[in-house]
Amino acid sequence: MSFAFPKKEKLKSRKLFDTLFAQGKTITKYPVKLIYLKTELPNGVKIQTGVAVPKRSFKSAVKRNRIKRLLREAYRLNKPIVFNNSEGNFAFLFLYLGKEMPNYRTVEKSMRTILQKFNNTIIDE
Question: Quick one: pLDDT at residue 1?
């Protein structure tokens, strides 16, 4: 299992984003929230992932982009937790809920917890 985060695993479809917000299930571990949906994905990808930080909380694009980089990195390093234990295809969207700039340790800790909770919910279904 590689730790790469290739382009085909990035969530880009506007339609899928809207469907995620409308029908997706959520798991929250402050300051990160995961919205996920079981769906059909193109070209043999198991999971497509997107990250979002609200403009309302962080007016500065520099700060928003920094948080998005932290979220992507935390996901990239912890994605084997999900890839090795889940069946089916999913779309993920990670939302940052906090109001202040996080450090990497905080983001990574909540990311790991969320991915483990996700595994447990998928196993239970």
Answer: 60
Distances (CA, A) of 85 to 23, 66, 90: 23, 29, 13
Partner residues linked to 81 by β-bridges: none
Q: Is 7 helix (H, G, I), strand (E, B) or coil?
A: helix
CB distance 50 to 92 below 8 Å: yes
Q: How far apart are the C-alpha atoms of 96 and 30, rounded to whole Å? A: 8
Evaluate the CA torsion angle 76, 80, 86, 88 in order and state its sign: positive
Q: Which structural domain, as residue segments, surrounds residue 41?
A: 29-124
CATH for 71: 3.30.230.10
Closest C-alpha to 5, from 64, 61, 80: 80
pTM above 0.85, yes or no: yes
